[in-house]
Design brief:
It contains 5 helices and 17 strands. The protein is an alpha+beta fold and about 240 residues long. It has 2 domains: about 100 residues, conserved putative lor/sdh protein from methanococcus maripaludis s2 fold, CATH 2.40.420.20; about 80 residues, Beta Barrel (Elongation Factor Tu (Ef-tu), domain 3). A hairpin with a 4-residue loop joins strand 5 and strand 6.
Length: about 240
Protein backbone atom coordinates (compact mmCIF):
# COMPACT_ATOMS: atom_id res chain seq x y z
CA UNK A 1 0.00 0.00 0.00
CA UNK A 2 2.84 2.37 0.93
CA UNK A 3 4.67 1.44 -2.28
CA UNK A 4 1.59 2.28 -4.35
CA UNK A 5 1.25 5.62 -2.59
CA UNK A 6 4.90 6.43 -3.26
CA UNK A 7 4.50 5.58 -6.96
CA UNK A 8 1.40 7.78 -7.29
CA UNK A 9 3.18 10.63 -5.49
CA UNK A 10 6.19 10.30 -7.79
CA UNK A 11 4.00 10.34 -10.90
CA UNK A 12 2.15 13.44 -9.65
CA UNK A 13 5.43 15.21 -8.88
CA UNK A 14 6.75 14.38 -12.34
CA UNK A 15 3.55 15.67 -13.98
CA UNK A 16 3.76 18.94 -12.05
CA UNK A 17 7.42 19.32 -12.99
CA UNK A 18 6.60 18.73 -16.66
CA UNK A 19 3.71 21.20 -16.44
CA UNK A 20 5.96 23.86 -14.92
CA UNK A 21 8.58 23.23 -17.60
CA UNK A 22 5.91 23.48 -20.32
CA UNK A 23 4.61 26.77 -18.89
CA UNK A 24 8.13 28.16 -18.68
CA UNK A 25 8.77 27.13 -22.29
CA UNK A 26 5.47 28.75 -23.37
CA UNK A 27 6.36 31.95 -21.55
CA UNK A 28 9.80 31.90 -23.12
CA UNK A 29 8.28 31.34 -26.55
CA UNK A 30 5.86 34.21 -25.99
CA UNK A 31 8.72 36.45 -24.91
CA UNK A 32 10.68 35.40 -27.98
CA UNK A 33 7.68 36.16 -30.21
CA UNK A 34 7.67 39.74 -28.93
CA UNK A 35 11.45 40.13 -29.24
CA UNK A 36 11.27 41.44 -32.84
CA UNK A 37 9.94 44.75 -31.47
CA UNK A 38 13.44 45.46 -30.22
CA UNK A 39 15.05 44.21 -33.44
CA UNK A 40 13.09 45.95 -36.17
CA UNK A 41 10.81 48.32 -34.28
CA UNK A 42 7.62 46.68 -35.59
CA UNK A 43 5.14 44.22 -34.14
CA UNK A 44 1.89 42.83 -35.54
CA UNK A 45 -1.13 41.74 -33.51
CA UNK A 46 -4.02 40.01 -35.22
CA UNK A 47 -7.14 42.14 -35.18
CA UNK A 48 -5.25 45.25 -34.06
CA UNK A 49 -2.67 45.92 -36.76
CA UNK A 50 0.99 46.86 -36.73
CA UNK A 51 2.68 48.97 -34.07
CA UNK A 52 6.02 50.75 -34.25
CA UNK A 53 8.36 51.99 -31.58
CA UNK A 54 8.59 55.76 -31.24
CA UNK A 55 12.16 55.54 -32.50
CA UNK A 56 11.09 53.77 -35.70
CA UNK A 57 8.20 56.19 -36.29
CA UNK A 58 10.64 59.06 -36.01
CA UNK A 59 13.27 57.42 -38.23
CA UNK A 60 10.84 56.83 -41.12
CA UNK A 61 9.13 60.21 -40.70
CA UNK A 62 5.67 58.76 -40.06
CA UNK A 63 2.86 61.34 -40.32
CA UNK A 64 -0.86 61.07 -39.61
CA UNK A 65 -3.64 63.19 -41.14
CA UNK A 66 -7.42 63.38 -40.91
CA UNK A 67 -9.83 62.31 -43.64
CA UNK A 68 -11.29 65.63 -44.82
CA UNK A 69 -14.08 67.00 -47.00
CA UNK A 70 -12.52 68.24 -50.24
CA UNK A 71 -13.42 68.89 -53.85
CA UNK A 72 -11.27 66.39 -55.72
CA UNK A 73 -10.82 67.11 -59.40
CA UNK A 74 -9.52 64.34 -61.62
CA UNK A 75 -6.07 64.38 -63.20
CA UNK A 76 -5.83 62.13 -66.25
CA UNK A 77 -2.41 61.32 -67.68
CA UNK A 78 -1.90 59.92 -71.17
CA UNK A 79 0.94 58.92 -73.47
CA UNK A 80 0.61 60.38 -76.96
CA UNK A 81 2.57 60.23 -80.20
CA UNK A 82 2.76 63.20 -82.54
CA UNK A 83 1.14 62.01 -85.76
CA UNK A 84 1.26 65.27 -87.72
CA UNK A 85 2.37 68.88 -87.56
CA UNK A 86 -0.34 69.84 -85.08
CA UNK A 87 -1.84 66.48 -84.14
CA UNK A 88 -1.07 63.80 -81.56
CA UNK A 89 -2.90 60.60 -80.71
CA UNK A 90 -2.82 57.81 -78.16
CA UNK A 91 -4.87 55.20 -76.33
CA UNK A 92 -6.93 55.62 -73.17
CA UNK A 93 -8.87 53.25 -70.93
CA UNK A 94 -12.67 52.90 -71.11
CA UNK A 95 -12.95 54.75 -67.77
CA UNK A 96 -10.89 57.63 -69.12
CA UNK A 97 -12.84 57.67 -72.38
CA UNK A 98 -16.09 58.04 -70.42
CA UNK A 99 -14.81 61.24 -68.78
CA UNK A 100 -12.98 62.89 -71.67
CA UNK A 101 -14.99 64.92 -74.16
CA UNK A 102 -14.05 66.83 -77.34
CA UNK A 103 -13.12 70.42 -76.59
CA UNK A 104 -11.40 69.71 -73.26
CA UNK A 105 -8.01 71.38 -72.78
CA UNK A 106 -4.88 69.24 -72.50
CA UNK A 107 -1.36 70.12 -71.39
CA UNK A 108 1.34 68.40 -73.48
CA UNK A 109 5.06 67.99 -72.78
CA UNK A 110 7.90 65.98 -74.30
CA UNK A 111 8.97 65.12 -70.75
CA UNK A 112 8.36 66.34 -67.22
CA UNK A 113 10.96 69.14 -67.51
CA UNK A 114 10.00 70.32 -71.01
CA UNK A 115 7.92 73.47 -71.66
CA UNK A 116 4.17 72.91 -71.75
CA UNK A 117 2.15 73.07 -74.96
CA UNK A 118 -1.60 73.59 -74.83
CA UNK A 119 -3.81 71.29 -76.84
CA UNK A 120 -7.48 70.47 -77.31
CA UNK A 121 -9.21 67.09 -77.47
CA UNK A 122 -10.46 66.76 -81.05
CA UNK A 123 -12.17 63.41 -80.72
CA UNK A 124 -12.37 60.18 -78.75
CA UNK A 125 -13.08 57.20 -80.98
CA UNK A 126 -15.46 54.65 -79.50
CA UNK A 127 -13.82 51.40 -78.42
CA UNK A 128 -15.10 48.30 -80.26
CA UNK A 129 -15.54 46.48 -76.94
CA UNK A 130 -16.37 47.73 -73.46
CA UNK A 131 -13.01 46.42 -72.23
CA UNK A 132 -11.00 47.83 -75.14
CA UNK A 133 -8.94 51.00 -75.15
CA UNK A 134 -10.19 53.98 -77.14
CA UNK A 135 -8.11 56.21 -79.39
CA UNK A 136 -7.87 59.89 -78.50
CA UNK A 137 -6.78 62.62 -80.89
CA UNK A 138 -5.47 65.99 -79.70
CA UNK A 139 -4.68 69.10 -81.74
CA UNK A 140 -2.24 71.87 -80.80
CA UNK A 141 -1.66 75.45 -81.89
CA UNK A 142 2.09 74.88 -81.92
CA UNK A 143 3.94 72.61 -84.35
CA UNK A 144 4.91 69.08 -83.35
CA UNK A 145 7.50 66.74 -84.83
CA UNK A 146 5.87 63.58 -86.16
CA UNK A 147 6.84 60.49 -84.18
CA UNK A 148 7.71 62.40 -81.00
CA UNK A 149 6.57 60.71 -77.79
CA UNK A 150 4.55 63.08 -75.62
CA UNK A 151 3.06 63.18 -72.13
CA UNK A 152 -0.40 64.71 -71.82
CA UNK A 153 -2.33 65.80 -68.72
CA UNK A 154 -6.01 66.67 -68.53
CA UNK A 155 -7.58 68.29 -65.46
CA UNK A 156 -11.30 67.85 -64.71
CA UNK A 157 -12.83 70.17 -62.10
CA UNK A 158 -14.80 68.74 -59.15
CA UNK A 159 -18.40 69.77 -58.47
CA UNK A 160 -18.86 68.84 -54.79
CA UNK A 161 -16.85 68.06 -51.66
CA UNK A 162 -16.23 64.40 -50.82
CA UNK A 163 -14.31 62.38 -48.22
CA UNK A 164 -10.69 62.65 -49.26
CA UNK A 165 -7.19 61.68 -48.16
CA UNK A 166 -3.73 62.87 -49.21
CA UNK A 167 -2.59 61.10 -52.37
CA UNK A 168 0.49 59.94 -50.46
CA UNK A 169 -1.71 57.96 -48.03
CA UNK A 170 -2.89 55.52 -50.70
CA UNK A 171 -1.25 52.08 -50.87
CA UNK A 172 -1.77 50.04 -54.04
CA UNK A 173 -0.74 46.37 -53.91
CA UNK A 174 -1.49 43.16 -55.78
CA UNK A 175 -4.09 42.47 -53.07
CA UNK A 176 -5.96 45.74 -53.62
CA UNK A 177 -6.02 49.39 -52.58
CA UNK A 178 -5.49 50.25 -48.91
CA UNK A 179 -4.78 52.94 -46.35
CA UNK A 180 -3.34 52.58 -42.85
CA UNK A 181 -5.90 53.81 -40.33
CA UNK A 182 -5.01 54.75 -36.76
CA UNK A 183 -6.23 52.30 -34.10
CA UNK A 184 -4.84 53.53 -30.79
CA UNK A 185 -1.12 52.77 -30.91
CA UNK A 186 -1.63 50.45 -33.89
CA UNK A 187 -1.98 51.07 -37.63
CA UNK A 188 -4.49 48.91 -39.51
CA UNK A 189 -4.21 48.23 -43.25
CA UNK A 190 -7.76 49.00 -44.38
CA UNK A 191 -9.23 48.32 -47.86
CA UNK A 192 -10.83 51.32 -49.57
CA UNK A 193 -12.74 52.11 -52.75
CA UNK A 194 -11.50 55.25 -54.47
CA UNK A 195 -13.04 57.71 -56.89
CA UNK A 196 -11.49 60.82 -58.39
CA UNK A 197 -7.75 61.28 -57.98
CA UNK A 198 -5.21 63.99 -58.61
CA UNK A 199 -1.67 64.79 -57.52
CA UNK A 200 -2.83 66.06 -54.10
CA UNK A 201 -5.95 64.15 -53.03
CA UNK A 202 -7.86 60.91 -53.54
CA UNK A 203 -11.63 60.60 -53.16
CA UNK A 204 -12.72 57.80 -50.81
CA UNK A 205 -16.04 56.22 -51.77
CA UNK A 206 -15.99 53.34 -49.29
CA UNK A 207 -13.89 52.32 -46.29
CA UNK A 208 -13.39 55.62 -44.46
CA UNK A 209 -15.37 58.49 -42.96
CA UNK A 210 -14.56 62.15 -42.55
CA UNK A 211 -12.60 62.58 -39.32
CA UNK A 212 -10.90 59.18 -39.45
CA UNK A 213 -7.12 59.31 -39.17
CA UNK A 214 -4.76 57.75 -41.69
CA UNK A 215 -1.02 57.50 -42.15
CA UNK A 216 -0.13 59.99 -44.87
CA UNK A 217 3.51 59.00 -45.19
CA UNK A 218 5.43 56.73 -45.64
CA UNK A 219 2.84 54.00 -46.29
CA UNK A 220 5.21 51.88 -48.37
CA UNK A 221 7.70 51.71 -45.49
CA UNK A 222 4.87 50.74 -43.14
CA UNK A 223 3.75 47.99 -45.50
CA UNK A 224 7.31 46.67 -45.83
CA UNK A 225 7.59 46.57 -42.04
CA UNK A 226 4.31 44.64 -41.81
CA UNK A 227 5.45 42.14 -44.44
CA UNK A 228 8.79 41.69 -42.69
CA UNK A 229 7.07 40.82 -39.44
CA UNK A 230 4.45 38.52 -41.00
CA UNK A 231 6.62 36.71 -43.54
CA UNK A 232 9.47 36.41 -41.09
CA UNK A 233 7.22 34.34 -38.83
CA UNK A 234 7.38 37.01 -36.16
CA UNK A 235 3.73 37.98 -36.03
CA UNK A 236 2.24 38.08 -32.54
CA UNK A 237 -1.32 36.78 -32.90
CA UNK A 238 -1.75 35.40 -29.39
CA UNK A 239 -3.04 38.56 -27.74
CA UNK A 240 0.09 39.32 -25.68
Amino acid sequence: MKASTMIITSIASLAIANLNTSCQESEAAAAKAEAPMAENGAQFKKGEGISLTGEMQSSIGLKVEDVIEEKVGTTTKMDLTASGTNTASGWITPAQAAMIKPGMEVTIRKDASAPAVKGTVERVDAAPLATSEAEITVTTGEPLTAGTQLQATLESAATEAVAAIPASALLKTAEGTFVYTVNGKFFVRTPVTIGSTNDKHVEIKEGLYTGDQVVSTPVMSLWMAELQVLRGGKACTCGH
